[in-house]
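Support request from a user on the community tier.

User writes: "When I paste my structure tokens into the form, the page sometimes reloads and wipes my input. The last time it worked, I copied everything first. Here is what I submitted, just in case something in the input itself triggers the reload:"
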């Protein structure tokens, strides 16, 4: 059986981050545990305008800093051309492409398909927060085994609210999770997870974030001082407490992207086997 190819789209624009470490960690774990050979390539999209072609089987597009609003940066048109190409491919071909969109990528694709109002938040959302599944989210293959609510890292200045119901229905997109309930705040709740198609999934939060690694990172003097300066000591202590709880982001990290990769491999495996020459055995 030929190797299944994974394209990792680095959207961090060379900004220091934990997201790429976590994504690569999950992909390498999948390589170690999968009975199907998996290979991957990383594309530095925003800094170097590097983009994969349509020869890959699985695409993971990362979070990243900065504004998801329209710009004239060189990477933007080819990025959306790739997104359109992936959706078009899946509409026409039996062998599907599997796509996972995280945070910044989620916002970009949400804007591209006009699924709701993309706007800047009144203040930065930063921390480990509860995510609430919708009725569709309770049965979705990637979320159904998580508790209600489940927890994940949320780090963003922008949001998608006011879902365009007509557009969602037209495209067949399901809302799977919403922002934490804030009854004392008269603001719309942001969309936190979408099932774009059976093969294409997106989250506003960071399901790749790992408890142990993030805890080490946050306990360095530099990061601790940065968080306290920007968000206060109470926020820092709360994040450290939740990072130590195995039922919060550690659980989310162990389920969502690993299940996505497992399901993609399971769907693509028989199609990959069909491409082998007759007489090949394993």
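"...and here is what came back when it finally went through:"
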């Amino acid at each position: 059986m030929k190797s299944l190819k994974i394209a990792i789209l680095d959207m961090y624009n060379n900004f220091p981050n934990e997201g790429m470490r976590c994504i690569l960690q999950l992909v390498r774990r999948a390589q170690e545990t999968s009975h199907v050979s998996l290979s991957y390539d990383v594309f530095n999209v925003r800094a170097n305008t590097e983009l994969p072609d349509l020869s890959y089987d699985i695409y993971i597009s990362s979070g990243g800093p900065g504004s998801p609003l329209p710009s004239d940066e060189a990477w933007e048109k080819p990025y959306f051309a790739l997104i359109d190409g992936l959706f078009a491919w899946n509409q026409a071909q039996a062998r599907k492409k599997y796509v996972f969109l995280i945070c910044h990528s989620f916002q970009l694709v949400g804007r591209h398909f006009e699924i709701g109002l993309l706007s800047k938040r009144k203040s930065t959302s930063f921390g480990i927060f509860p995510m609430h599944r919708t009725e569709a989210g309770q049965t979705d293959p990637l979320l159904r085994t998580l508790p209600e609510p489940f927890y994940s890292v949320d780090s963003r200045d922008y949001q998608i609210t006011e879902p365009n119901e007509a557009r969602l229905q037209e495209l067949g997109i399901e809302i799977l999770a919403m922002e934490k309930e804030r009854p004392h705040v008269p603001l719309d709740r942001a969309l936190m997870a979408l099932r774009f198609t059976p093969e294409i999934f997106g989250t506003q939060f960071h399901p790749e974030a790992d408890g142990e690694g993030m805890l080490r990172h946050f306990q360095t003097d530099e990061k601790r001082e940065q968080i306290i300066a920007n968000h206060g000591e109470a926020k820092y202590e709360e994040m450290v407490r939740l990072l130590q709880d195995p039922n919060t982001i550690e659980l989310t990290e162990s389920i969502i992207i690993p299940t996505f990769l497992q399901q993609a491999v399971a769907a693509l495996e028989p199609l990959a086997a069909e491409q082998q020459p007759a007489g090949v055995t394993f």
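Agent notes: The reload is a front-end session timeout and is unrelated to the input. Strands lie at 4-10, 38-44, 58-61, 98-102, 117-133, 150-161, 174-178, 191-197, 200-203. The longest strand covers residues 117-133. Escalated to web team.
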